[in-house]
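Regression test case RT-17, inverse folding.

Input:
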């Protein structure tokens, strides 16, 4: 790639940096697709420390839910009519394959009268040991006729593991969320926005479900020899809004991770504007994990906002429709100079009267407030 001059962003802070809840200040112009293609990667300048690398080790074994330290003795018996399969029981405690979540905080919807039409944002952070790429290495991926019905197959792009086994920053900040509770099991997408914070859609969370868990897997690549190159973390608690209808401008939650993956991988910033023209003045990238990709990442480029509906202090940012189920919670973002910056997360799709069906991303100041709450109150 050839070099291109970019406004300076956040080349990397102290490896223990916790981020701030302050505004990013003046937002540099967004980079177009041609500029991204011509931008030279920003190289890593140091090696990842060993204690930070431990955060990315994959989970192994099972978990035991017990008030006291459980016995390490296990009972086992061969499963009837299943060759070479054993049933294992703990002598104390309950065996689990997930770490349960602890707390759900549902916020009440604010009224339009309380909305603040202001510019606000949070900072991104790239650790010094993470290379930054403005475009990932890509390979074409086409949906099958079965998945698209009578419509012509649409072209998506996904990073190919053979070319980039581990995605560089900020692409590695996006991952799949696996949610399980008494209500069932489903998947969505999410993105790192702090050292121990993930942002996703509110409807990805298991509101009202008991015995719940949510797992965030950054840069998941099902089918690869190493499908979880950066490990994963379960979520201890989340805070935000329970979507009251199919799409909604408040459709987001902030989640606290048990393992601070953002310390190792970095995180994206976020932005809102009081002037709606700012939203429509630039093109965006959308990243996520649609079900049709089978647990592999997808990305759309040059996504433009076509309309904005006001759910103050949330906004519905409407784009052309391309996404599929499982993409919910994936970020709509752009490079503000060198800084990857989120403006919304996917809520769903809708049709307004004579308008074509459009994807809807939830954003605006209520989303920024949630991220700031996490940065200020869920410190390491």
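Golden output:
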């Amino acid at each position: 790639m050839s070099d291109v001059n970019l406004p300076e962003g956040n080349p990397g802070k102290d490896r223990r940096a916790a981020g701030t809840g302050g505004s990013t200040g003046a937002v540099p112009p967004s980079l177009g697709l041609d500029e991204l293609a011509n931008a030279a990667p920003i190289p890593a300048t140091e090696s990842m420390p060993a204690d930070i690398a431990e955060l990315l080790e994959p989970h192994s074994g099972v978990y035991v839910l017990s008030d006291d330290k459980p016995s390490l003795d296990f009972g086992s018996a061969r499963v009837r009519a299943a060759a070479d399969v054993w049933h294992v029981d703990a002598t104390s405690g309950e065996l689990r394959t997930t770490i349960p979540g602890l707390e759900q905080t549902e916020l009440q919807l604010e009224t339009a009268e309380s909305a603040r039409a202001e510019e606000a944002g949070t900072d991104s952070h790239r650790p010094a040991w993470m290379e930054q790429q403005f475009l990932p290495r890509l390979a074409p991926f086409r949906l099958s006729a079965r998945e698209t019905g009578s419509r012509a197959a649409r072209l998506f792009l996904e990073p190919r593991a053979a070319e980039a086994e581990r995605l560089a920053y900020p692409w590695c900040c996006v991952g799949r969320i696996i949610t399980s509770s008494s209500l069932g099991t489903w998947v969505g997408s999410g993105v790192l926005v702090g050292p121990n914070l993930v942002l996703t859609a509110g409807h990805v969370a298991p509101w009202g479900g008991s015995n719940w868990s949510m797992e965030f897997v950054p840069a998941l690549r099902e089918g690869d020899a190493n499908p979880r190159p950066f490990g994963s973390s379960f979520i201890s608690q989340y805070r935000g809004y329970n979507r009251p209808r199919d799409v909604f401008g408040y459709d987001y939650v902030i989640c606290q991770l048990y393992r601070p993956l953002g310390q190792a991988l970095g995180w994206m910033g976020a932005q809102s504007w009081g002037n709606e023209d700012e939203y429509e003045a630039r093109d965006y990238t959308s990243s996520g994990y649609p079900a049709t990709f089978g647990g592999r990442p997808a990305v759309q480029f040059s996504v433009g906002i076509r309309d904005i509906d006001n759910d103050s202090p949330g906004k519905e940012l409407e784009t052309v429709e391309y996404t599929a189920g499982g993409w919910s919670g994936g970020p709509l973002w752009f490079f503000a100079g060198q800084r990857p910056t989120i403006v919304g997360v996917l809520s769903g799709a809708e049709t307004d009267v004579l308008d074509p069906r459009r994807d809807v991303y939830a954003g605006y100041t209520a989303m920024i407030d949630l991220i700031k709450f996490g940065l200020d109150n869920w410190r390491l």
